[in-house]
Amino acid sequence: MAKILVIAEHRDGVLSEGTLELCKAAKEIATGLGAEPAAAVFAKDDAIANEVAKYIPEVFLVADAAVEVYTADAYTQAAKAVADAQDIKGVLIAHSYDGVDFAAKIAMALDCGIVSNCNKAAVDGGNVIFTRNTYNGKIQEERKVNTDKFVATFEKGAYEVEEAGGAGSVSAVSASFSDIRTSVKEVIETMAGSVDISQAKVIVAGGRGLKDGDKYKEVILPLAEKLGAEYAGSRPVIDSGWIDPARQVGQSGKTVTPDLYLAAGISGAIQHVAGMKGAQCIVAINKDPEAPIFNIATYGIVGDLFEVIPAMMENL
Amino acid sequence: MKIVVCLKQVPDMESKFKIIDDSKIDESQIAFKINDFDNYAVEAALQLKEKNGGEVIIVSAGPDRAAKDIRQAFAMGADWGIHINDPAVYEGDNFVIASALVKAIESIGDVDLILTGVMAEDIQAAVTGVMVADLMGIPHSTNVVKLEVDGSNYTVNRELEGGLNEVIALAGPAVFSIQSGINEPRYPTLPGIMKAKKKKLDAKSAADLGVAAEAKIEFIKMFFPVSDSMAEIIEGDPATAAATLVDKLKNEAKVI
Hints:
- The complex is a heterodimer.
- By secondary structure, chain A is α/β, with parallel strands linked by helices.
- Chain A folds into 2 domains: 170 residues, HUPs (Rossmann fold, 3-Layer(aba) Sandwich); 118 residues, TPP-binding domain (Rossmann fold, 3-Layer(aba) Sandwich).
- In chain A, 27% of the residues lie in helices and 31% in strands.
- Chain A has a 9-stranded mixed beta sheet with strand order 9-8-7-10-6-1-4-5-11.
- In chain A, strand 4, helix 2 and strand 5 form a beta-alpha-beta unit.
- The longest helix of chain A has 17 residues.
- Chain A is elongated and about 65 Å long.
- Chain B is of the alpha/beta class.
- Chain B folds into 2 domains: 208 residues, 3-Layer(aba) Sandwich (Rossmann fold), CATH 3.40.50; 29 residues, no CATH class.
- In chain B, the strands form 3 sheets. In chain B, strands 11-10-9-12-8-1-6-7-13 form a 9-stranded mixed beta sheet, sandwiched between helices. Chain B has a two-stranded antiparallel ribbon with strand order 2-5. Chain B has a two-stranded antiparallel ribbon with strand order 3-4.
- In chain B, strand 10 and strand 11 form a beta hairpin.
- Chains A and B meet through helix 4, strand 7, strand 8, strand 9 and strand 12 of A and helix 5, strand 9, strand 10, strand 11 and strand 14 of B.
């Protein structure tokens, strides 16, 4: 039977949570298509594969020193080996940093369409209809492939995490590797800093809507101080050097789960939301009523943050 | 160094979006600009040219309106460009567009380096650059936040989750997708804007470039997201709304 194949993601011996979300997605899609869910693990040994087998019935393991460290070339060759050995209908990959680096290459190797950055998949008459964010999350669209096979990448949080409990099989697939053109020298930490915002109970975060670094400091810092909060920012704030990189919230920064997260002038791009959606209460202040941040906030004020925040200060 | 930057013109994301027939954006309400990530790619290319000599060539697929933003990159300092202004290409999927970009890049010849933004802000696919590399049979790296060149050897930092960077070495020619924050994109100067008007911009069709690729994915429809957890919007003038918010945070959510 045809397989819907999750490509497991792991680093330093740790399986990513996104992989467990993909296991859930694979089961749903496979059920709709009359296919079987499976996963592929590319690693130096069988440790990760044995872990993945708790979440999905069948695991194909390419165990080779060539895939001990991720590279796009080695992962593509390993995926091709699994696709050649098995009847693969669809490949599911996390829309993560590694996933973005190799998913399109696997689609090229399988000569099939890729729908990337999806948040939902529904099966309709043998076709998988993918829903995905566009226009910075303001608009969603549906797409499908017109090739026999498909590759799809899913944004973090698109599916619930699959529960462990199964005892899937692990079978080895042999692959030969050649011409791996990138070599990984080292992995470095770029956010080393004295502050750890991930433990804060209250966070006041500013975004592009603050306009410049001076205004950020004038508006955000006093509010953070008054609330006994840590201050933080979205990517543009860090890119522009207004605050320390250790204070970045989002996919490329910290993940935070405070009681209160106040987002001022932050549009709510998925990369930012990934880092703060676990907050208990989210307040969004933004002048754009269509900003996607309002779709996940608890309370929202559509207005000029330069008027709203000083007015808040008077009430605190 | 001969450096190509693949650039896309996109809507300003703060525009008021209207959808026509579930299938397209009403462009009459939209201001267009260079894709934000591509601005960083242009700046990275210009800095490499300033250090190592050579030229920076813009390759872009898009309707006639895209010429404005290709010339914006010229005004920043890019030397010339190819504008694939054929709907058979720019209305195609990522594979068709990547195939056309490759044909355009091959028509330039002897290109050392190809830079793109990490993704286009409108379609948010983040696949075209990787496809370009694959079609050309050259290596790539994505989400590049640091880029150093020594002859034809490159050392790049690839961004990972949680503030980690992977340091990668590879030999060119190569494709890098450039992440925001790698540099501070320059603004065009007035002399730059004057010069940009005279720089060469070749318009090409799919037939001119010999593009025969066919789409592998299909668009079905577009719609505004429906959230089941939409915020409670607090109405009123700023003072009233702010007072209500503080009250709710204290007495309803009990988080301050």
